[in-house]
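This section describes the prediction task in plain terms. A model, or a person checking by hand, is given the sequence of a single protein chain and must write out its three-dimensional structure as a string of tokens. No templates, partner chains or ligands are provided. The sample shown here is typical of the held-out split.
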Amino acid sequence: MNIKRSLIILGSALLLLGATAHSLELKVSTTHPLLSDLVRQVGGDAVEVIDLLKPGGDVHHFEPSASDLRAIQGATILFASGKDLEPYLGKLKDSLGANVTIVEVGKTIPSLKISADDALFLCCPAHSVGSIDPHWWHSADNMARAAGVVAKALIEADPVHKSDYAKRGKETAARMKALKKWAQTEISAIPKEDRKLVTAHAAFGYFCKEYAFRFVPIMGLAREEDYSAKFVAEALKVIRDEKIRAVFPEDQANPKILREIAQQTGIKLASPLIADGTKPGAGSTFEGMLRHNVGTILKALKPTKK
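The expected answer:
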């Protein structure tokens, strides 16, 4: 009887210990699937991550719902992309209260301004030149830096796991640097004169800077689909003059204008690139997105063996 009672007491203690251990998990939330993946890499088992924007969502039109706010109740940190990508942040902070720290991960990462020095624009300047490109996550160097930002925030909120967060933060940054080297090696197979990335929208500035591409975003930062015959004619002339070999649609954008340009010039309409890092599956992780995009660009621009 005593042995049986002891086993019952021991079992109850283990259950209590398990429940306590679970309750010690640091609960955080994120506004972007790429950030969720990054926080999970740095936080490990000590962190519970709740996604506000889930894979498949649209980062440019997302607004948190009442059910989203209920799901992140109890979160200590909200990791946001920053660079004005989430205009709802101020309102969200008021809803969550003073106990939640909002960390704009991209805030300390140097911004790229849309500039005619770095890219060839075919649209009107109001939709491009001078605006900040918020898509900082297309740079492996930026993601490595972001790993440090995430580690610092987790350490401040949960100093008990300081050494674990610091270690995983450095390991994650090292993985990002290794991915950059991999991408550089792959892209070296494309001749420099062919490194021209033609997309509909200006989402790949950081990628192009990191891997020495000439960026040609036809619609700038605009996402509307209206364009004139004159606009198309000007785009066709630039594409012919620049000897561009392919145009690249994006996974969440209408490819209509690029398809029209490809048909009229006879150049290749490539497979879609992942622009916003929200494609379900591997496309909502930085590694998956980068490997997909590099592979897609190589397939379209790498010289074929004769």
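For orientation: DSSP finds ten helices and ten strands in the chain.
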